[in-house]
């Protein structure tokens, strides 16, 4: 009888612990955060030049401030390093987004942000790099989107901060080959951002379609939403149209 009583008490205690302990399988992974300057230069394609980071920035990168509400842009009062942290998300520099408009799941969007103009040795801008972010599975994913200035096709896409699962969503930083899928993909169809990340892998040559990460639907959708939101009218869309009008 004592054995049965002890067994019941032990089982009850075990059940109580099981009910109160967190499910470790559902705990968010540890955050990943890479060097922002390197990520910026990688998305611009400048790391191939094999020069020191400071030299690449001084020689090939100009930073401008973009008013996201109007699309107007002007030289930034910050240098590249300063610009990485000097556009805070605050009540005086942000717009609240409705659920309908907030496809990126960010809730608020800055009214002004930096854009990095990548130029050649002759000072001719050939790429534009923009900061982007969106909701992944466990939190926001942050990165840089590089566009060819001629047709706004994707020149580079790199992420530097996230909290996605190792072997799944974390492939956005852990697998350098994954981001090469975006090279030369088109964004605008009928003047509307139309990138799609599909979990159904195929040999399709659709210029707007990219294979997502197997088993990481939320992260893949987060990347899709990040690109489409930040190239749309609530992101850098107005700026891109003004830039094109001034350079044609």
From TrEMBL:
GO terms for molecular function: FMN binding; oxidoreductase activity, acting on NAD(P)H, quinone or similar compound as acceptor. It comes from the Bacteria. InterPro entries: FMN-bd, NqrC. One of its GO terms (biological process) is sodium ion transport. GO terms for cellular component: membrane. Keywords: Cell inner membrane, Cell membrane, Flavoprotein, FMN, Ion transport, Membrane, NAD, Phosphoprotein, Sodium, Sodium transport, Translocase, Transmembrane, Transmembrane helix, Transport, Ubiquinone. Pfam families: FMN_bind (PF04205). Residues 136-234 form the FMN-binding domain. PANTHER family: NA(+)-TRANSLOCATING NADH-QUINONE REDUCTASE SUBUNIT C (PTHR37838:SF1). This is FMN-binding protein. It comes from Vibrio mediterranei.
């Amino acid at each position: 009888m004592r054995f049965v009583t002890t067994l019941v008490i032990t089982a009850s205690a075990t059940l109580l612990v099981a009910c109160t302990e967190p499910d470790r399988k559902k705990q968010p992974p540890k955050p990943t955060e890479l060097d922002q300057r390197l990520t910026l230069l990688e998305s611009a394609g400048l790391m191939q030049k094999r020069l020191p980071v400071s030299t690449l920035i001084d020689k090939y990168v100009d930073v401008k401030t973009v008013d996201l509400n109007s699309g107007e842009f002007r030289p930034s009062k910050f240098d590249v390093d300063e610009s990485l942290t000097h556009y805070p998300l605050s009540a005086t520099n942000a717009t609240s987004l409705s659920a309908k408009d907030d496809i990126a799941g960010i809730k608020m969007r800055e009214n002004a942000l930096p854009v990095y103009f990548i130029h050649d040795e002759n000072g001719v801008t050939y790429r534009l790099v923009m900061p982007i972010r969106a909701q992944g599975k466990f939190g926001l994913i942050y990165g840089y989107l590089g566009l060819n200035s001629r047709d706004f096709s994707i020149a580079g896409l790199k992420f530097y901060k996230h909290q996605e699962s190792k072997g799944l969503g974390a492939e956005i930083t852990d697998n350098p080959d994954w981001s090469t899928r975006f090279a030369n993909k088109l964004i605008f169809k009928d003047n509307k951002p139309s990138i799609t990340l599909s979990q159904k892998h195929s040999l399709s040559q659709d210029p707007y379609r990219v294979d997502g990460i197997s088993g990481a639907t939320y992260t893949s959708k987060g990347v899709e939403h990040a690109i489409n939101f930040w190239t749309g009218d609530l992101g850098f869309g107005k700026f891109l149209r003004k830039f094109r009008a001034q350079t044609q």
